[in-house]
């Protein structure tokens, strides 16, 4: 199962996720949004990492803007939101792209978006963080979700408990999970007990 670290804001988290085998480490580079990280700090953190692919995460930015940032900042990949710019995904040709899907949209809407976007993206990120009882939602339409996860490489992002990675892998065959970073207790100091409990089940 693949691991994507999302919205990382500090070197402590970045080095932890790299050591735990994360394939992707993402930094929110959309100015004015929560967990925004100045590209200067992103580049400084990037210098300490070996292995993971570095992802610039964007919310409302157009594919053209994301592609320009990827080139200028030396990013390995970008993540953008499915939304108004779906018809412009071709502007990201040559740039590895992760497309964030809002889990509140429902499996049938999401499947339609995925089908149209698939030629332009390498992975999807299904964000269930805004879905109450997301496990029950997956269970209630198991066949639809199994079809989606079977056709495409999907990271699931949610409020995980330790048992969730194994459940998602064995029951739904998802390609990976996405986990957000968090604040340090003080510079260079942070407890990773909760994350360890989740990642140890991969």
Instruction: Compute the number of structural domains.
Output: 1
Give the percentage of residues in beta strands. 15-25%
Oligomeric organization of the protein chains? single chain
What do the pLDDT scores average to? 95
What's the number of extended β-strand segments?
Answer: 8
Return Rg in Å: 16 Å
Structural category is alpha/beta
Look up the CATH topology: TIM Barrel
Low-confidence regions: none
Task: Give an account of the 3D structure.
It contains 8 helices and 8 strands; from the N terminus they run E-H-E-H-E-H-E-E-H-E-H-H-E-H-E-H. The protein has 202 residues and is of the alpha/beta class. It has an 8-stranded parallel barrel. Helix 3 (63-73) links the parallel strand 3 (53-57) and strand 4 (77-81). The longest helix is centred in the middle third of the chain and has 11 residues, at 63-73. The mean pLDDT is 95.
């Amino acid at each position: 199962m693949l691991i994507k670290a999302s919205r990382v804001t500090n070197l402590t988290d970045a080095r932890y996720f790299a050591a735990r085998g994360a394939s992707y480490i993402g930094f929110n580079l959309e100015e004015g949004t929560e967990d925004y990280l100045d590209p200067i700090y992103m580049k400084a953190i990037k210098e300490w990492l070996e292995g993971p692919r570095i992802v610039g995460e964007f919310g409302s930015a157009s594919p053209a803007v994301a592609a320009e940032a990827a080139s200028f900042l030396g990013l390995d990949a970008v993540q953008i939101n499915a939304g108004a710019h779906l018809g412009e995904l071709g502007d990201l040709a040559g740039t590895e792209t992760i497309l964030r899907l809002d889990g509140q949209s429902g499996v049938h809407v999401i499947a339609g978006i995925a089908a149209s976007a698939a030629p332009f993206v390498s992975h999807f990120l299904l964000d269930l963080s805004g879905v109450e009882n997301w496990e029950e939602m997956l269970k209630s339409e198991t066949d639809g979700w199994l079809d989606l996860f079977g056709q495409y490489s999907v990271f699931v992002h949610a409020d995980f408990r330790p048992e969730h990675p194994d459940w998602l892998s064995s029951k739904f065959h998802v390609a990976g999970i996405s986990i957000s970073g968090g604040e340090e207790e003080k510079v260079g100091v942070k407890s990773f007990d909760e994350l360890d409990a989740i990642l140890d089940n991969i």
